[in-house]
Amino acid sequence: MSLAALAQEKFWENKAQCEDAEKAYYSGLSGAKVDKIEANAGGAGASADVLKKLKDLELENKDLKKVTSDLKAMIVKLEGRVAAIEKAKPAAAAAAPAKAAPAPAADDEDDDDVDLFGSESEEEESEEAAKVREERLAAYAAKKSKKPALIAKTSVLLDCKPWDDETDMDVMLKEIKKIEMDGLVWGANKLVPVGYGISKLQVMIVVEDLKVSIEELQEKICEIEDYVQSCDVAAMNKI
Questions:
Q1: How crowded is residue 147: how many other Cβ atoms within 10 Å of its Cβ?
Q2: Which of 26, 95, 123, 199 has the maximum number of C-beta atoms within 10 A of its C-beta?
Q3: What are phi and psi of 238, to 5 degrees?
Q4: Using CA atoms, how far apart are residues 26 and 228, in angstroms rounded to an integer?
Q5: Alpha carbon distance 196, 51 (integer Å)
Q6: Domain boundaries, position 42
Q7: How far apart, in whole angstroms, are the C-alpha atoms of residue 138 and residue 142?
Q8: Do 21 and 86 lie in a common domain?
Q9: What number is the average pLDDT over the span 188-200?
């Protein structure tokens, strides 16, 4: 293809690059240096990069313009909707009192039906409620009275000492256990050596605090003078 035919082309994107290549070709034929040819070729490549960047910028510019136009259209629509809503608010506010106007008449009718002094049916209901409440209170009191009360008891360990080593401790125990009191329960017993062949009798008892007096029980035990010299409390615990 001749240079004349190429010059008549309407669109020739790499024309500058071809011209540079042509110049480099003729320079090579005339004996020009290689570095100058390479420099010219590099300049042609740089110009091609610039053209590409310009095209990219043009495409981005078109996209931005489209986005901007779309945003403007949306803003116009929103402004129209807001204006329509603001116009509708005064009309709704004016219509609301007109609809609520008949309400006082209904209130007057309700006032006519109100009985300020109460009715007989209400009095009967209050009497029935009071009667039911009294019955429930009576049932609760009866149930509480049937519940057994807590009985306070005490566990006591008594030390019963004989007169001498010749005292019959078995007979002494039998005589002591003959004592009977309401709320007194005799428990275990044992002999504990004291010294010089003498032993004391320890007896466990359980007493109800409201019925049995420990001091009174000690006095009754000491009344067995033939066998008991003294009676003391060794230990006491509440149950």
A1: 7
A2: 199
A3: -80, 140
A4: 155
A5: 134
A6: 14-104
A7: 6
A8: yes
A9: 93
